Amino acid sequence: MAAVSLRLGDLVWGKLGRYPPWPGKIVNPPKDLKKPRGKKCFFVKFFGTEDHAWIKVEQLKPYHAHKEEMIKINKGKRFQQAVDAVEEFLRRAKGKDQDLTIPESSTVKGMMAGPMAAFKWQPTASEPVKDADPHFHHFLLSQTEKPAVCYQAITKKLKICEEETGSTSIQAADSTAVNGSITPTDKKIGFLGLGLMGSGIVSNLLKMGHTVTVWNRTAEKCDLFIQEGARLGRTPAEVVSTCDITFACVSDPKAAKDLVLGPSGVLQGIRPGKCYVDMSTVDADTVAELAQVIVSRGGRFLEAPVSGNQQLSNDGMLVILAAGDRGLYEDCSSCFQAMGKTSFFLGEVGNAAKMMLIVNMVQGSFMATIAEGLTLAQVTGQSQQTLLDILNQGQLASIFLDQKCQNILQGNFKPDFYLKYIQKDLRLAIALGDAVNHPTPMAAAANEVYKRAKALDQSDNDMSAVYRAYIH
After folding, report:
1. Contact between 435 and 427 (Cβ < 8 Å)
2. 3 state SS of 388
């Protein structure tokens, strides 16, 4: 974007990294929030989102001069609500000297429920898109009403709560002006695996100022993150050897083992003091095996699978389930704040894997039941949309229910959580039940439906494509 002449109080369109342009206002930053070093930037408060960031001047455009252009590009409902909030602000400000507070109308209080990534930035030929400074700061000045979901990571701090059972949970509390933005660890962070979940995690680590080295089996996936400030590792072993803490997030037990034990794998880079955090959803036996080989080389091990999907990963709102080395868990504090809204420490190695499989077993079974209900409504002559409307007004109402039903009604199965992975998790959860002689008939029934969907070539679609198993 071409440089423009801007000053305090100007309304602007601001662009954050891969996110699309969004209306905001240049305001004074909090006194204790330092400006990033490097190119000239302004502190912008965005309309309708309660989000704030330092934005480089070349990523800003005057609001009025580019309003028609932006409205033509972006047609989303939440985008229109943000524009409406700007216009309401202008009406109130007309003829008066206004302070820097952006009013929030009732129509935009729920805006944070949707991802900005749904919008696309369309630069002109003379204005190539440049990524925002990877060390920009988010800063929540005030939040009187916490939304269900935020469109991207907001600043958080961790608080430790000792429960009556003696186990420990760590939950994220929203940061305020007193706490400032996340203070990134000074440790060098490595990340292996840039799939649906890993990509969002790395993006948020970079945004919150962490030093990150990345590796992916398909090397070109690293390019975007290199542009955002990440370093490139040639092999998993190299990443581990050059970083203090290395995270990994891959698809299944085989991939997790190959990453550690294979040629130029993690184990070859482990030496005393090196830390390895496996965020993959795998079975407890796999985790125990990986922990044993890492620790045998003098390394430290933590399992930390995440509950969520691609959108929540991009938003920095994952739920992290951790077990293993408690000290390493605490060392990962700033990383977990950047990528998630809540972290739980569950004790010894294997506990997080078991809990994660149980969580995904419930989610996968629920998804199959949703698909079953929609198809039953269809074959009995009932409106699927009306069924969704009824469910959304009852006790089952949730973002998950609404999003997955919308996928089905629109025939849009772009993956947010791969169907093949939820089937894998169901299979592992059933095996977990078998190991302790506990029946899992609901999960077993759901698993068969997902297997049918996989036979219909739905593996690489979203889990909601299980619907197709009922209509073919």
Report:
1. no
2. helix
C-alpha to C-alpha distance for 296 and 303, rounded to whole angstroms: 16
Q: Is the pLDDT of residue 88 over 70?
A: yes
Strand 168-174 to 340-345 pairing: antiparallel
Model pTM score? 0.66
- For CA atoms 255, 257, 261, 265, the dihedral sign is positive
Q: Which residues lie closer than 8 Å to 195 by C-beta, 6 or more apart? A: 249, 250, 251
Q: Are β-strands 212-215 and 189-192 bridged in parallel, bridged antiparallel, or unpaired?
A: parallel
Q: Which residue has better confidence, 328 or 112? A: 328
Q: Are 289 and 256 in contact (CB under 8 A)?
A: no
Mean pLDDT throughout 354-365?
98
Alpha carbons 379 and 362: distance in angstroms, whole number: 26
Distance CA 125, CA 128 (A): 6
Average pLDDT, the chain: 82
Nearest partner of 401 among 382, 428, 374, judged by Cα: 374
Query: In degrees to the nearest 10, what's the CA dihedral of 333, 337, 340, 345?
Result: 30
In degrees, rounded to 5, the angle at the alpha carbon of residue 229 between the alpha carbons of residues 152 and 16 is 35
CA distances from 21 to 76, 134, 353 (A): 13, 17, 39
Residues in the chain: 472
SS3 label, residue 34: coil
DSSP H helical ranges for 107-227: 196-207, 223-227
Count CB-CB contacts under 10 A for residue 461. Answer: 22
What's the pLDDT at 165? Answer: 38
Q: Sign of torsion, CA 444 193 285 165?
A: negative
Across 248-272, average pLDDT: 97
Check if the beta carbon of residue 242 is closer than 8 Å to that of residue 213. Answer: yes
As given in the structure block, the two tokens for residue 162 are 């000792």
Question: Up-side HSE of residue 177: CA atoms within 13 Å toward CB?
Answer: 9
First-last CA distance in the chain:
49
Question: How many Cα atoms are found within 13 Å in the side-chain-facing hemisphere of 139?
Answer: 25
39-43, 169-173, 274-278, 458-462: least confidently modelled range: 169-173
Distance CA 437, CA 237 (A): 39
Burial 289-314 (b: 16+ CB within 10 A, else e): bbbebbbeeebbbbbbbbbbbbbbbb
How far apart are the C-alpha atoms of 6 and 457, rounded to whole Å?
53
- Token couple for 182: 């996340």
pLDDT, position 74:
76
Point out the least confidently predicted range of 15-19, 116-120, 369-373. 116-120
C-alpha dihedral, 188 to 193 to 194 to 199, nearest 10°: -50
- H/E stretch holding 156: strand 156-162
